[in-house]
Every structure is written in C-alpha cells, then in structure tokens.
Amino acid sequence: MSPSGKPVPPRDSLTSEINKPDFRELDLGSPVSPLRSQPRGLTTTTTTTSSSSSSSSGSVTRHPPVIGRSGSVRGSQSGSSSGNLRTSQARSDSVTSNSQPLVSSSTQSSATSPATAANVLPTGNICPSGKIQLTGMTQSRSRSDVLGSGTGTYGHGSIMRGGGGSGVSPAKPVAPVTVGGSIRSSPAAMLGSDAEEVKRVGNEMYRKGLFGEALRLYDRAIALSPANAAYRSNRAAALTGLGRVGEAVKECGEALRLDPNYGRAHQRLASLLIRLGQADSARKHLCFLGKPSDPMELQKLEAVEKHMSKCADARRLGDWKAALMEVDAAIVSGADFSPQLVMCKVEALLKLHRLDAAHSKLLEVPKVEPFPASCSQSRFSGMACEAYTHFVKAQVEMALGRFENAVMAAEKASKLDPRSNEVAMLHNTVTLVARARVRGNDLYKSERYTEASSAYAEGLRLDPCNAILYCNRAACWFKLGMWERSIEDCNHALRFQPRYTKPLLRRAASNSKMERWAAAVSDYEALRKELPHDKEVAESLFHAQVALKKSRGEEVLNMEFGGEVEEVYSREQFKAAMNLPGVSVIHFSTASDHQCKQLSPFVDSLCTRYPSIHFLKVDIDKCQSIGNAENVRVVPTVKIYKNGTRVKEIVCPNKEVLEYSVRHYSS
Predict the structure, then answer these.
(1) SS3 string of 531-582?
(2) Of 651, 628, 635, 624, whose CA–CA distance to 589 is shortest?
(3) How far is CA 226 from CA 203, 219, 603, in A?
(4) Is 364 helix (H, G, I), strand (E, B) or coil?
(5) Residue 492 contacts by C-beta under 8 Å, 6 or more apart in sequence?
(6) CA end-to-end span of the chain
(7) Are 635 and 620 in contact (CB under 8 A)?
(8) Which DSSP state fits 59?
(9) What are the CB-based long-range contacts (under 8 Å, 24+) for 514-521?
(10) SS3 label, residue 353
(11) CA-CA distances (angstroms) from residue 546 to 352, 540, 549?
(12) Model confidence pLDDT, tens digit, residues 578-620
C-alpha cells in the first residue's frame, strides 16, 4: 500500500529499455482521463423551473456540481453571473430562484437533474482520483476529493487533495515560474501528495528529455514514499541522462537495498557498470537470476571484457600502440565512461613521447563522483582502479616538470592501493627524482655547475626520459663551456618533448658559441614560430643571420637591430631602398584611409619581429610621383622586393597573408 492508501501496482517486466524510468501508471478508475482537457463550448443545461419566491424566471446554464465527503458542493455557472459559485452544508441561502437545490452527500439523497451528460468535465480544478460526482449520482467515498480553494487557483486545472472535516482547507499558494516571458507553475509545484501521480509526470518529463525537471519530480515522489524502490531506479535514470553516472550507480544500489530482487534496478546497474568498465561487477547484476536478463547487454559486456583484457596484456608487455587500439575498441564497445580506460590511453601516449596529446587527454577523463563504493575493490592491470588514475597522473606531472604535484599524486595512489608493487615503485621513484631536481637547482644557483650536473644525472638514472632534467643539465654544460655536451642533452630533451622551447633556445645559443650559424639560424627561426613576440629571440636571430651572411662572404649593409619603419619622401630615396640587398617591404598608404591606419601598427610589429628585412612606407598623398610611377591606385598596397626585383604585390592585404609573404621571402 502507498502512503496515500492506494494499492501499489506491480513492477514492469525486465524487457523494457533499461535507460528509461519505470513507466508504471496508477489506474484511477475514471471513465475519462483525469488530465483530459474539457471540450470547448460543451455545457449542461438544466430545466427552467418556476418558484413563487423568485422575482424572475429564465434558463440558467451550469455544470454539474461535485459533491465531496464533507458535504461541500462546488460548481460553475454562466449567464447572469461570471464568478465562482460556492455552497456548503452550513449555508441556508438559495443560489438562484430558478436553480435546483444542492444536496449534501451526508444525507445520501440524490438530486434531480433533467439533463445529465456522462462525459462532460466540470470547469475548474481536477480531483486527483479522476472521479467526477454528477448530480443524481451521489455516492459515498473512502476519501475526500475536493476542488481547489478560492479564486487564486480555482478554474486553472491545479491538482489538489482535500482533507476531512466539514470545511475545505485553503490551498497553499504556488509560486509562479517565469518561462520565456510568461508566468506558469512548474509541474512539481502543481502536483499534490500522490506519489504515483508525481512519478507519472516525472516520466513524462523524462520522455521529453527534461532530465532536470524529471529528477526534481522523482525526488518529490521519494519524499512522499521513501520505501519505493522504483522511484529510486527512476531517479537513477534521470541522473544518467544528466551525465551524473556515479550518483546513478549509488541510486541503483539504494533501490536494491530497498528491494534486493528488483530486476529493473539490477539491469540498470549492470548497464552503468559496463559503461564504467567494471565488467565483473556488471556480470553479477546482469545474471542475478542465474541467466542474463538482456542478451544485448550480455553481448556488450563480453566485448568490453575482451578488449579490456587485451589492453591489460599490451600494457604489461609495453606494447603501447596495441594498448591504444584496445582502449579505443573497449570504449566503442560500451565502456564510454570508464576513467581507467582513458587513463590507460594517457599513459600510452606518454610512453610514446606524445606529452602534449597525453596532457590534453588527461583533461577529458570522465569524472565519476562520488566514486561508487562497489567499484573501489575492482582492479585494472593489477592495481585498484581509483589508484591507477593517480598513478598515471603522477607520471604526467613529473614529465611536465611539476614534481611537487607528481609526489602528491603518487602518495594518493599509494594510500589507495598500498599492496601494489607497481604503485610503490613509482612512489619511490617520483620522490627520489624530485629530491635530485631540488638539489641540482640549489647547486646551480650557487654556481656549482659540476655538482649540479651530477645531481641532475642522478635523477636521470631513475627517470631516463625526463626532458626537464636533460634541459637543466644542458644549462650546466653551457655554463661550463662544454657546448657539445650541452647540444647533446638538448637533443635528448627535444626528442621526448619536441615543442619544449628551453632546450631549443639553449641549443641555438650553443650552436652560436661554436659558430655553427646555419644551425643557430634554424633553431632561432623555429623559436620565432613558437614565440613570435619575444624580442630577445628576434634579436638573436638577427645577429645569427648577419653572422651567417658574413661567413658566406655576403655584403651586409644593415648592422643595426630593431630599426623602425623608414618613411620615404623622394623618388631617389625610394630607388635606393629598392636596390638594397636582401628583402625590402614597402607599404603604400594615405593618412586619411581607415584601413591604412589599421594596417600600419601591424607593419611596425613585423619590422620588430623580422629585423633582417627592410620595411619602408610611402604616403602617396605626399609623394604622388612615387605612387604614379609604381601605378598604385588602391591603398593599402604592399610590395616586396628581393635584391632589387619585385617578387610580390598585395592589394588590401589581411594580416595573415602579409606575414606569410614576409616570412616566405625572408627565408
């Protein structure tokens, strides 16, 4: 029995879809749907009678009254009055002189009505039971169903449950909800205390994809009937729709605590555990009756088990490419919300020296909060699943040079799985490497470069793929004037982290010290792409380019770095600029043009970033002869000359095209 006194219907069969709530409806026994809208214009007309006490006669159109247990009668009337008409057992005055008298149900007498429509619904509020008492059909009831109270809600379709007694208790005010500029009441606020009715409306919200509203309705149903396992299972479905898988697992567990034999909850929990990659636990719930309740889910489970087993084997053998493939296959098979599978992918990318991809994938790990207690003892590749997450995170943090974070992650993994040898070894390694790095940094700051290099070497012995330690040791070799060894360590660092700019900068500086100008220019140009606004890199590149030209015997006229855009005032000055060796970029503009004003600051920035190129500007309003000679009709126009020959002309260039052209002809 439900708290409201209604019998609770049996649960659904297990053949329904597991990702939907239980759509169990309560048969209200009404000849019409309790939520069916009344057809427009349909009324019941009473017979006109004469009375000696009346002062007038005529026809009155009115709906059949609804008679509650307490004897109160409510109806609606149209004609001479548009308001709500209320009578009670205590009132002695007549409604109108031409209307039939209203009869209380407490007298168990029937009222006569010449015309009665069996399928006509009264206007106003709808009784939760869906039963409508018509005139002439008075009957006793086990509980009172009364309409809404007062003009505040009467006639707007709100559902209310009336209490016992001789009077009608007023309805609680419903706070309006503003939606799209209009005011309406939310479904949860309009429902009464019938848990099944609340659940039914929640199911409707779920069908429409309104999982948040469905969740609120299921919460209310649970508050009305806390011992109902179906409500908990439905709540798990809504949480799953919102992506809150960890909470959904917990809710299924609560449903099974209330009813250990509830098949729908077992099946739903099995589906969630498959998504989490918890194959062993999922099998227990899927086959809780000794055989699988859903063959499709069993097929999915077997596929996930197969690929996860192959993934663990590949990881144990160090075949990281195979591990990546098996992880993707397991996710496609159904384990799409498994943190340990995504962390295995992160670890594989890290071992393949794809640190940037590993770091990006680390941000995509599904968050399962709270982590299900039923999954805390499950293991992946020999260690606890939750510990494995911190195990991989510690490795990523150490590779990124965040040694303190790595130590904390390793400590968490060790606490979660103190029996795992692999976790214990990582914890020890991370701790020792972090100490070696701190000791090396302190020695470097004290200018004890030889001892610092030894400290970094100790860390590399424990972690031979750590690019940070290689880069730090390269700095020691540079300070000691050992350029070749510095370049060698920089190469190691770049092999493990190709986009790591510090070893690239140190290698460029070492090449410059050894007068390997071509290699230095190549490194500085690569740095300029990564750090386009770094003036130190631009200046170093300029000097390396000058030194390279000198080493080749080329004439270098511009020996000054960081020159500004030169403004041209005469044709002679323009001809001299065009004939300069190297690359010259000439910007034709006018002071009044808006687009020229926007482009000029960008040309100034290019002059700073490409110091080996000559940048000039010509105002064609001031030097019309140059504009006519160069046939400039539209501004802004940019022309590029190389060794006195025009190689490119761009009319109204955008910034991307202009920089690409400058970079292309400067190489």
Answers:
(1) CCCCHHHHHHHHHHHHHHHHHCCCCCCCCCCCCCCEECCCHHHHHHHHCCCC
(2) 635
(3) 18, 9, 71
(4) coil
(5) 467, 470
(6) 85
(7) yes
(8) -
(9) 514/483, 514/484, 515/547, 515/551, 517/544, 517/547, 517/548, 517/551, 518/548, 520/544, 520/547, 520/548, 521/545, 521/548
(10) coil
(11) 39, 10, 5
(12) 777 778 899 999 999 999 999 999 998 888 777 778 899 999 9
Q: What is the pLDDT of residues 381-422, one digit of tens each?
A: 889 988 999 999 999 999 999 999 999 999 999 999 999 999
Taken as a whole, the chain contains a residue count of: 667
Q: Exposure of 177 by Cβ count < 10 A (0-12 exposed, 13-18 middle, 19+ buried)?
A: middle
CB count within 10 Å of CB 189 equals 16
What is the DSSP secondary structure assignment for residue 615, as one 8-state letter? E
Reading the block at residue 187, the tokens are 């479904």
**Tokens standing for 7?**
């019998």
Structural tokens at position 113 = 């009505």
Token pair listed for 656: 């991307």
Q: Which amino acid is at 415?
A: K
Structure tokens at 105: 């149900």
Q: Please, are residues 410 and 426 in contact by the beta-carbon 8 Å criterion?
A: yes
CA 232-234-237 angle, 5° bins: 115
**If you write DSSP's letter for every residue of 398-457 in order, what string do you get?**
HHTT-HHHHHHHHHHHHHH-TT-HHHHHHHHHHHHHHHHHHHHHHHHHTT-HHHHHHHHH
- Confidence (pTM): 0.61
Tokens 């890199």 belong to residue: 537
